[in-house]
Amino acid sequence: MQVVLGTREADWQTVMDITLTRVFLTSKYGICQIVESGGGSIVNVSSIGGMREMFDPHTYSTATTVTVNCVAPGGIDTEMISS
Fold it and tell me: To which H or E segment does residue 11 belong?
């Protein structure tokens, strides 16, 4: 419970924008191109963080536990992970 209580709304929104809104907008605008070209696929790249607890289980895992067909590579050392 302390993790949830200690999370700032701005941090929550940043993670949601990076993980969910980005995928939504890419799919939303990519679908038009796929339909116009006669078909295709959208492949979303996920993270192992959605399958096991990492640095921020309630925020990051919430955004990555939607069931989709995806590729889930190992962790990548990014600024977000480092902070």
Answer: helix 9-16
